[in-house]
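Lab channel / #folding
Pinned by the channel admin:
"Please post every new chain as: sequence first, then the structure tokens as a reply. Keep commentary short and put observations after the output so the thread stays searchable."

First post following the new format, from NK:
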Amino acid sequence: MSLKKIVSRTFQRFSRWKVVFGEPLPDKAVIIGAPHTSNWDGIFMLIALWDAGCDMKFLLKNSVINGPLGPIARAVGGVGVDRNSSNGLVADIVEYAKKADKFHLVIAPKGTRSRREYWKSGFYHIAREAGLPVVLGYIDRDKMIYGWAHSIELTGDVRADMDVIRKFYAGKKGMRPELSCEPRLRMEDDVN
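Reply from TO:
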């Protein structure tokens, strides 16, 4: 048993929260982690994926990767991102995903734990351009459960795809519900 799985199982043994697995994870996928209102929301997502034996990567701001917690963040799958400049990040991730036999990228599309009007669209572009399904990972504070349900294939109809995502996340609350926001992409407003 891997160290990550041992950590996950130990956490679950002493936690009042329950991990819930939906359908098996595809070999390649973009995994949404939402709602993202506190660091605990992210930790719950890691715990669930470690229990499933998923070797995933997740995006973190460079200041974390380059700070004192950097070695730990990298060891558990963190990849640094300069949030002020995209510099071809989506294209690089898509190219890597297409070449890999297995690929799991966890993204918190809200992009911050603070309240905001829109989700960031990187997860959508990566999934569409790489032809990957999107796995709907979640935390629900009221039910004290976390994990993932199922995956969806994005159609390219942004509003219709986001309607499916909104319906799934409706009523799910992170650790700090007052910081939640409706899953919405700015590019939905640009679609006529």
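NK: The longest helix spans residues 39-51.
TO: also worth noting, The mean pLDDT is 88.
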